[in-house]
Amino acid sequence: MDADVVCPTTIADLQAQLLLPSCATAGCHTTANPAVGLDLQSPGVALRLVGAPAVSCPGHQLVVAGDPDASFVIDKVSNELPACGSRMPLGSVLDPASVACLRAWISSLAPMDGGLDASVAPMDVGPDASGCPSTLTECNGMCLDLASDPSHCGSCSNDCGSGGTCTGGACSCLTGLTSCSGTCTDTQGDAMHCGSCTTACRAGQICARGSCMAGHLCPSGTSMCGGSSCYDLMTDPLHCGSCGNACAAGLACTNGSCGCGTTQTDCNGSCVDTMTSPLDCGGCGITCGPGEICSSGSCTCSGTGMICGGTCVDTSTDAGNCGSCGHACAVGQACNAGVCGCSATQTSCGGACIDTASDPANCGGCGHTCASGQMCSGGTCSGCGPTSTLSGQVQSILSTSCATNGCHAGARIAAGLNLAAGSAHGALVGVTASECTDGRLLVEPRRADRSYLVNKITGNGICSGGRMPVSGGALSASQIALIESWICQGALND
Hints:
Elements: H1 11-22, H2 45-49, H3 72-78, H4 96-108, H5 127-130, E1 137-139, E2 142-144, E3 164-167, E4 170-173, E5 178-180, E6 183-185, E7 205-208, E8 211-214, E9 223-225, E10 229-231, E11 252-254, E12 257-259, E13 265-267, E14 270-272, E15 292-295, E16 298-301, E17 305-308, E18 311-314, E19 334-336, E20 339-341, E21 347-349, E22 352-354, E23 374-377, E24 380-383, H6 390-401, H7 424-428, H8 452-458, H9 477-488
Antiparallel strand pairs: 1-2, 3-4, 5-6, 7-8, 9-10, 11-12, 13-14, 15-16, 17-18, 19-20, 21-22, 23-24
Helix pairs in contact: 6-9
């Protein structure tokens, strides 16, 4: 790779700077309408790429950990005639630097070795970058099902151990084994726990089929291990195929070999219950979406959720889908029990739901308007804070932290939002926030409290995605105050 190419260092940055502007565009790989079922827009994108089958090209994987040349996504963005379909993105060609960065990310992944703990370790994936579905938990950069993962049962890194399995987030022993002081034991053959955890055979005795007996020869179908214990090496997960060969947590012993039990399926080296696993629901690689659970091998919404636009939402509380899919409450309204109306902190003023604690047109009460240059805080009119103009203070912040190449400026503008000098005002002021369904504006003049730009830079009240900027660290309190003051003073193009 060209030494001058600087690639993103986290999967979140790679998604924001490369996948979102080039692939997750309208009609392509968006969350609402993902082409060939591949969503490259919502969080958790690594989970949907690494080790996942290429739906449009049987026999290929989208991303093969550690091997970009074997990854179908590299074939699709690099070759004029890929193995299946057309070159991507449609209508354009990904520049060599972007392809190099995509290859570098794939190369940085830990190759799956077929072991029970085979996992994805993409770059520097922190808890905030993983974006795990609600039914999964982030553990060391991986989205895991703590209800069924025997290596992370109930909590990260809680290993059930040899002979153990995980059900409902609690470790238990495989059928035929007994927990003795927290260790799964075969009481049918263990001379120290023969027939029960508290029964030890005397010297000169052997344990066979759960009973201590005199002699030195094990019954047919069992083998001597340790001089006094008789085990069935064909089925015993603690002595599978040979004495002391213990299968890893979650694996059963069949015909002397460790593998998945009768109710489990081998998916990329891990034994999973495809009836309940949200990562492999109904089959390997079938991942349930945000808010979904896996029930009887089918992805479905949990609780009172309903699928709207491909995502599970609670129509009893979702202001964008209140009572039914697509029924959005008016700006400022909340959804309570599936009905749009004013929230507990709002007041009805002229038929509109108003927060009189922050609305400068109804500050402290309906109709009480703050003077120009004032803001409403705690129901009282006050000054907007430090004087701030777009050209004097705000644009400098945007240019340094947001309008960088690959983000909100340059050849590939993230989310189509150009924050470069000369374009920022038109892109922000009075423009509806595409991430929200409640009609919120990116910048509403005089209303910093209702401007989605403020939500994104503070991390509060975000509709989707994460806090901005994605790289370089969050804005300082003083920088945020300057942006809020500019909005409070009318968000002028000054």
